[in-house]
Amino acid sequence: MSIQPAGSLLRAETRLLRDSGEPAAEESAELLPPWPTDPKAAPARLYPSPGPAWPSRLLRGLLELLAPARAACGLCGGGFAPGRTSLAGLPADLPRSWCEGVCGRCRGMIPWISRIQCHVCGRPDPCGDCCRRTSSGFIRSRSAVRYTLEMRQLLARYKYRGEEALQPWLAEMLLPAYHALAEELRLADRLPGRVSDRLGRDGRSEAQPFDLVTSVPISRQRLEERGFNQAERLAASLAVRAGVTSRPLLERKEERGKMSAKTRRERLLAAEGLFGAAPEAAGILRLLAARDPERRRPLRLLIVDDIYTTGSTMDHCALALQRCSHVPVDLYGLTWARA
Ligand SMILES: [Zn+2]
Ligand SMILES: [Zn+2]
C-alpha cells in the first residue's frame, strides 16, 4: 500500500466526491484550519490509566480541591478536569464515558441535531430534496450532527489524517440519533419500552429495531489510499454498542471516465450504477429472514455513512439492496453528519 501525504489524499478525495455526483462537501477541507487541539496535550487516550491508590477518601478530597484530577479530552487531547463542567444540553443516550471524556470546549462546539424538520431525511431545516426525489430506496435517514466547519475539521482528522483514536468517540456520537430512530420504529410497531426491557425467552430482544447494520462502501482505490472505510468502521462500532450484527453488504464500482466532463444528468445517471450488492448479500438476507420465520414485518437494515449530502448515495445503496434481496427488506439510513 502506498503512503501518501494527507494533502494529496485530500485532493484525491475532493476530486472523487466531485466526480460522484454528490456535492463536494469536503471541497475546502484542505484549507480549513486544524481542529483547535492543545499543543501541549498528550495524544488522546481511549482509556484513562487508573490513578494511584489513595490513602484515604479525606486526603483524596483535599487533594482534589487543591489540584483537580486532569484527564485528556477524547476529541482535542487537551487536559481538563472532568466533573468541573456542566453536562447540561448533551443528548440523552450519549454514554456517560463519552460525556465525561470530552472537555467542555469541545462539547460546546458540537451542533447536535435534536429537532428535525424533514421526517424522511432527518434534516433540521426545511427540506426541498425529498419531495424532488423520484426513487425512494430508503424509508428514513437520521444524522447525529450538522456538518459545520468544526465538524468538518473533526471528521477530516479521522478520515484523512488517520487519527484512529477518534473512532470510538465519533461512533458513540451516533447513538442518540440511532436510539431516536429506533424509538420512532418502536412506536410504529406499537412496541413501547426500551430494547433492554423486552427480552424474549431466549434472551434476544423482541424489540430490536434492526436486523442488521451495514455501511456505504468506498472504492478499492480509495480503500488502498486511506487504509480503511470510515463508514464501515463507524457501523461496526455502533453495532457493537447497540447489540446488532454488522456486515458489509455493498460494493462500490470504480468510476469510469472523467465525471467532471459530464453534464449533471449524465453524472447522476453514472452515480446510479456506482453501488451494487455484494455477491453474498442476497444469501445473507435470506438466512436472516429464515432465522425468524414468525417475524411479521420485512427485514430492517440500517445503512451507516459519515455524511449525508443530497441523499443520492443513501438512496442508491438502499435500491441496490432492495433489488438483490429475495425477501422483503426495509432500508433506513444513519449518518454522522448532515450537510
Ligand atoms: Zn476537547
Ligand atoms: Zn428531506
Automatic annotation (TrEMBL):
Protein name per UniProt? ComF family protein
Membership in a protein family: Belongs to the ComF/GntX family.
The residues forming the signal peptide are none
Species the sequence originates in = Paenibacillus albicereus
In terms of superkingdom, the source organism counts as: Bacteria
